[in-house]
Amino acid sequence: MKKPKCAICNDTGIEIVPRGRFAAADRCSGCQTSCQICDGTGYLFELDENGREHAQKCQCQDLSYRIMLYNNAQIPSQFYDATFENFDISGNPSLKSALDTARFSFKNYQNGKWEGLLFMGGVGVGKTRLVSTMLRDYTLKYGIPCLFKEFSSLLSEIKSGYDKGLSETNLLESINNIDILVIDELGKGRKSDWEINILDTIISNRYNMRKTTIFTTNYTDSKSTSLGETAGQKDGKGGAAESERRETLEQRVYSRIYSRLKGMTDFIVINGPDFRDPRNRYTTRSKKR
Ligand SMILES: [Zn+2]
Ligand SMILES: [Zn+2]
Fold first, then answer.
1. Which candidate, 92, 84, 91, 98, places its Cα nearest to that of 127?
2. Which of 11, 18, 31, 154 has the most CB atoms in a 10 Å sphere around its CB?
3. How far is the CA of 33 from the centre of ligand 1 (A)?
4. Which CATH number fits domain 88-228+246-288: 1.10.3720.10, 3.40.50.170, 3.40.50.2000, 3.40.50.300?
5. Ion ligand 2 neighbours, Cβ < 5 Å
C-alpha cells in the first residue's frame, strides 16, 4: 500500500476524536484546514456555453456532509477509532463471520434488502464495537444518515422528554425516520410494561416502514448462553439459582416483539470470551501458542 500523504487522517480528510459521550469527526487538522480547490468557499464558479456564471458545489462540501452524518449518529466515544481494518477478532471464528456479514451489509442495503442484523452474544464479545464500526462506514464512506441508541439511555431520554412536556410522538420522530437505526443492548432494563410498550412502538414503526434496524443484545435463544442482568456473575456462586434467572431473548421481549425481530433482522450469534476480563485475555493468547 502507498504511504499516505497525511499521517493524521490517512488521506481520508477526516479526523475523529472522543469528545464527551460521543465520537466527534472534523476536517483533518493536518490537510483540510482550507480547501485547496475552492479556497474554503465551498463553491466553484463555472461559465456555461452562454457565458453565464454558475455556482457548483465543491467536492469538499460532500466531505462536510459526511462529517455531519457521523457526528449526528452519536457513536460512543469509546469506539471513535473502531474500523473494520483494526478490528481484533482474536482468533474468534464467530466474531470473524459476524464481521464479514457486517461488512457486506452495505451491499445488501444498496441492493434493496432493508432487513437489518441482530447480533446476540455475551458481554464483551465486541458487539458494540462492531455496530459502531458499521455506522462509521455507513456515514463516512456511504453517506447514509444513521443513529446509535443504547436502549436504556433512550428510555431515560424519553422520560426526561416527558418532563419537558414533549410527547412520545415528538421524541420518537428521529428514531422512526432515520435511515439506519442501531439499538444497542436490546432487552436491558427492568422489563416494565412501559419499557416493553416503547420498544414495541419503535420496532413496529421500523418494521412497517421497512426501515433498516441493527440490534445488539446479551440475550440469545438459549438460556445457557443468555447473559442477563443478574446472570453471568464471576463470583462462582451462580449455580442453579443463577441459571433460573436467565432469560432467552424471547422471554425478555415477549413473543410479539420477538417475532417482529425475526422478520426484520438476521440473527447472528457471536460466541466467545469476555475480552474485558484480563483472565480471558490471557487464556486467549496462551491458546494461540
Ligand atoms: Zn489529513
Ligand atoms: Zn472546496
1. 98
2. 154
3. 9
4. 3.40.50.300
5. 35, 37-38, 58, 60
Task: Please answer whether residues 95 and 216 qualify as being in contact, where contact means their C-beta atoms are separated by less than 8 angstroms.
Answer: no
Give the pLDDT score at 257. 97
Prediction pTM value: 0.84
HSE of 213, CA atoms in CB hemisphere, 13 A: 28
Nearest-angstrom CA–CA distance, 72 and 146: 8
CA of residue 57 to ligand 2 center, whole Å: 8
* Unique residue bearing C-alpha cell 434488502: 113
Cα of 68 from ligand 2 centre, angstroms: 16
Ligand closest to the CA atom of residue 15:
1
How much is the mean pLDDT over the chain?
A: 87
**Coil/strand/helix, residue 107:** helix
